[in-house]
Amino acid sequence: MDDGRPGLRERKKQRTRAAISDAAITLFLEHGFSKVSVAQVADAAEVSKRTLFAYFPTKEDLVLHRLADHETELARVVRAREPGSGPLAAVRDHVLARLRERDPITGLNDRPDVLRLTRMILDSPSLASRMQGFKAGAERALAQALRETADTPDLTARLAAAQIITVQWVLAHDNARRLADGEAADARYAGAVADAEHAFTLLGNGLRDLTPKRPPKRTPNRSPKRSPKR
Known about the structure:
It is a single chain. This protein is mostly helical. It has 10 helices and no strands. The model has no long low-confidence stretch (mean pLDDT 88).
């Protein structure tokens, strides 16, 4: 009788995938991402390199597959929002909820294992570069969700998605850097919320508040020069 659970074959594949990933993360954190070879990971996980690559096509995937589900997260939020609510408000509420929950994707989680993994990603050029691929995928997914659920024109959807995803990433990166430098998540929380609210206010205002308003400069009155009397 099918009870909705994966079968024996699928469960075995899941265990193998988890074992490879755990072995990789352990080695990377202990020795450094660039100093560990794929062959060493395969040996530690007791699988062949061929098997490893069947589960993880690249070395970077051994680390970043844990973030793959977040690539379409905001698109799913937009699709699942309450009737009558706007896409931006739904995303804002979602981001604030994730900050309250200390979700690692927000950069606001100071568990030692999360901090070490975050620091490794930030300090590795190849991992940071691969993260840009996730960012581009998130923009495409969000733009599609905006087009399909809000009838947003294509260009507007792409521009809006690029701005929303960039805000999410900048906020998360700022939080992660502060925690990597020693700030506690609880101490950072109020500032993280304030930054998020400020960012979404700017988005909601169409970036009208990007440049602070300053009073116009006053130029001193100068009397016109008089020609010398003859």
